[in-house]
Structures are given as C-alpha cells and as structure tokens.
Design brief:
This protein has about 170 residues and is an alpha+beta fold. The protein has four helices and seven strands. The chain has helices at about 5-20, 65-80, 115-125, 135-155, and strands at about 35-40, 40-45, 55, 60, 80-85, 100-105, 160-165. The mean pLDDT is about 90. Pfam families: RNase_J_C.
C-alpha cells in the first residue's frame, strides 16, 4: 500500500493478503520512511526528514519555526492596529488628526477605541521632543507602548501595533 491515510493503508494491506500476497511482502510505511525493493524482498531503508514546509516567494522554510508563520499566526489571532501621525519637523506639532486603522481585531461590545487611541497619540506627541527625535524612534516606541497597554487593559488582547511617523 502506497497511498492514503493510515486506515486506508491497513485496508489495502488486508486486501492484498486476502488475495494471497505474503505478509512478508507487505509494508506499511509512515511519512519519511524509505522502502527498499530488492530481488530478495522488501524492507525499510533509512528515513528522510519530512513535515510541513512553507514555500513563500521561492524560499523553503520550516513551517513550525518560521518567523513569517509566527507573524501570520499572531496577526490572524490578534489583529493589527496601524497608526499614522503627521508631525511638523520644524515645530514638532501634529499637522492633522492621527489616523487609526485596525484589521482582524474584534472590538468587544462594538466599542470604538479609535478616538481614545488618537488622544493617546496626541499625548505622546506632546510628551516627546519630536524635533530632537530625528528618526522618530522615541515617538514610535512611546505610541506603541501606550496603545498596547491601553488595548490590553480594555480587552486583554495583544494585537500588533504599527506606528508610522510622517515628518513634514
């Protein structure tokens, strides 16, 4: 038997013995087992590695340990918030209302936290010296931390938080 689930393989083996084939000539191989056929008979050879693999963009990765798969799992389970703030490079002030977009995140009781998150972003911009934070890393980190804490306190969930700072 060479095809099907284990129960099918067992049934195929029984069918072969019912038709008169010797049990010495029947093997049920598991995934990764090699079967050697010789003039003297049939036997198991060396096993080969097997398992689920991810083919993504031409690269082959171990599915269980892949960073890509871990990220995809996190996104699928917890969702994502993308926050964009446009700040003046000269004054450090917000130039427009921060944008808050979420995907894959279920709001409990149809709550809308976007206005609260915008307020958090506004506070972060006020607290961080945006003009001295030339690469935006300090402001980005502050927004991510405070939004993550806020959402966790409200929902006990940990969505991915992406904060983008546009300097004009």
């Amino acid at each position: 038997p060479v095809h099907g689930e284990y129960r099918h393989l067992k049934r195929h083996a029984r069918l072969a013995t019912d038709l008169g084939m010797s049990e010495n000539n029947i093997l049920i191989a598991d995934i990764g087992n090699c079967v050697e056929l010789t003039p003297d008979g049939i036997q198991f050879g060396e096993s080969v590695s097997s398992g689920s693999r991810l083919v993504d963009g031409g690269s082959l990765e171990d599915r269980e340990n892949s960073v890509v798969m871990k990220d995809r799992k996190h996104l699928s389970e917890d969702g994502i918030f993308v926050i964009t703030a446009c700040v003046s490079e000269r004054t450090g002030d917000l130039l427009s209302e921060p944008s808050v977009v979420n995907r894959g995140f279920v709001m409990p009781n149809n709550a809308d936290y976007n206005s609260d998150i915008r307020h958090i972003v506004e506070n972060c911009v006020d607290q961080v010296d945006v003009r001295a934070d030339t690469d935006g890393s300090e402001l980005t980190a502050a927004i991510k931390k405070q939004v993550k804490n806020f959402i966790y306190k409200k929902t006990k969930q940990n969505p991915v938080i992406m904060a983008n700072i546009v300097r004009v």
